[in-house]
Amino acid sequence: MLHYAVVFFVIALIAAVFGFGGIAASAAGIAQVLFFIFVVLAVLSFLFGVFRK
Fold first, then answer.
1. pLDDT score recorded for residue 21
2. What is the pLDDT of residues 27-44, one digit of tens each?
3. Which of 3, 8, 17, 44 is 20 to 30 A from 33 in CA distance terms?
């Protein structure tokens, strides 16, 4: 999931360089959502791992 966030971030950067503001904003928004989902899942996985042992 983190990989997809980075891919969308790179797409946003490339679109911004070429002047496609709408596409850049959309890709950056998707990257931000995917990153926060990754962080939440990583924290939950860590907490479940700690409490199981």
1. 87
2. 999 999 999 999 999 999
3. 17
